[in-house]
Amino acid sequence: MSDQDETTVNEGVTGIPRREFLKRTTLVGGGLAVSQGLLNERSATTPKPSSIAMPGATGVTTTVRLNVNGRDHQLRLEPRTTLLDALRDGLGLTGTKKGCDRGECGACTVHIEGRRVLSCMTLAAMQDGKRITTIEGLERNGQLHAVQAAFVEHDGFQCGFCTSGQIMSGVAMIEEARAGWPSAATSDLSKKLGIADLSEVEIRERMSGNLCRCACYPNIVAAIAEATRKG
Amino acid sequence: MHPFALSRAVDASMAIAGHADDPQLSFIAGGTDLLGLIKDRAALPERLLDINGLRGMAQIEALPDGGLRIGALARMSDVAADVEVRRRFPVIAEGLLFAASGQLRNMASIGGNIMQRTRCSYFRDGDDLPCNKRRPGTGCAALAGINRTHAIFGWSESCVATHPSDVAVAFAAMDANVIVRSRTGERSIPFTQFHRLPGDSPDRDNVLERGDLIVAVEVPARVEGRSSYYLKVRDRQSYEFALVSVAAGVATSARTITSVRLAMGGVAHKPWRLTAAESALRGVSLDDANVLRAAIATAFVEARPLPDNAFKVELAQRAVLRALETAGARA
């Protein structure tokens, strides 16, 4: 799928950066009211859901309600819109990255109802009514999540493109281990597994769905191991 | 992405009727294969029917007789984490855990997993090269192309692709059944008869007809279940499809094999049961590697490697031996 599918045709003639262009067309293009929270997720106080129309080529749209990082949103979008495109191009939450767009790299990892998933491989319209968390929603009152802080501490990135996916994956992976889920690195499946069993080998296996082209893997593993210890 | 309409199924009977009457409609559950196929234009459905809301199809039941019933909408990660699945059939839990990634396992359903289509790059990568699976009648580019990851058993001139699922190999080894509902009622398809060999119609991966909905996979109680193991050999250690894989389950008496079940992935258009080897291995000691090797070799007489994948014939036999020994150590 190309980006062109969900953008309007006059992109590139306005002379403004693509991301800003998308945010502006999102605001005005659909002719619907948009809450003030769109570009400033953190200061939002109104309980009224934002209402956003995403430009599309087919003219056939559907309405989807998503709770993203604690805020309710109502979007009008084409059924073929992935959750990834809805987050980025509809809600302006560009922290979630589009890498391969084929479920192969992990850059688009978000949480749906607390579980890590690939937002490029699900349709926004299939997640109607669901609670979504993106990288923008991890911090609490200006404090980084323990995994975010550990990535800074351990230099867990170079170019940073995979980082939000790595962090979202790591946060949920620690919860999976806490819930006793085994992995392909778990030697005895009959044994009850706990957070203390998250060895480096276990972390590497459980994080294998997140690729890092800069190969920061040793630092990523170190960051997650520290966040695991600090719990 | 190719545009389509999307609706939500609330009732299985209506979903089945809708699918039966509409050749342009596809069910969607996890979506992790179907959306990739649509993005690659290897599938172009006009309508998708989201079946995730169908009730009673996501349960994982440990049956009183020692078997399992796994709902078609159960997610790979939930099945792999289930304590009874892990205890009764480690080969199934491992088949799931060795597949995909944590994110994909949270999304992908069991029904969708066994329906996933081949990873043959000629099938996935566009309309420039012949592919009978993608565009029937155009030929098979892999037959004379790059076929290192392709089949060594059961292929035809029409198609040399392999089936990519891991857990399907475990299901085949354990004699699971696919429970399918249609307008005429429910039927049970033995797992080894669910997927097809390519023959002259490789566009058909399995025996399902329009209007068929997979509701569950049932695994009968098996003495070989508890001492079972899934071995996957691949180009990288994690997050990769198999070059060859083995699902092995064994029952022993004083280290002598009383019964054994073996199936392989990465070698054919469907999970490949090694029935000749299963017969030859009965009565053999797990400590007698030479006799084990000779018994395993009986299943490879009919192997027909392609120009790039002759290595699989030897690799597969070694993998079977290792899987058998590891399963045996669990007995």
* SS field, number of helical segments of chain B: 12
> What topology, given as strand order, has the largest sheet of chain B?
4-5-8-6-7
Structural class estimated from helices and strands of chain B: alpha+beta
Helical residue percent band of chain A: 25-40%
Q: Roughly how many Å apart are the termini of chain B?
A: 50 Å
For the sheet with most strands of chain A, the description reads: 6 strands, mixed
| CATH C-level category of the domain at 228-329 in chain B | Alpha Beta
Shape of chain B: globular
Write the CATH homologous superfamily of the domain at 228-329 in chain B. CO dehydrogenase flavoprotein, C-terminal domain
What is the strand content of chain A? 5-15%
Shape-level CATH architecture of the domain at 228-329 in chain B = 2-Layer Sandwich
**Strand count of chain A:** 6
**What is the CATH architecture descriptor of the largest domain in chain A?**
Roll
Global Rg of chain B: 19 Å
The average pLDDT value of chain B, as a whole number, equals 97
Order of helices and strands of chain B: EHEHEEEHHHHHHHEEEEEEEHHH
Distance between the termini of chain A: 39 Å
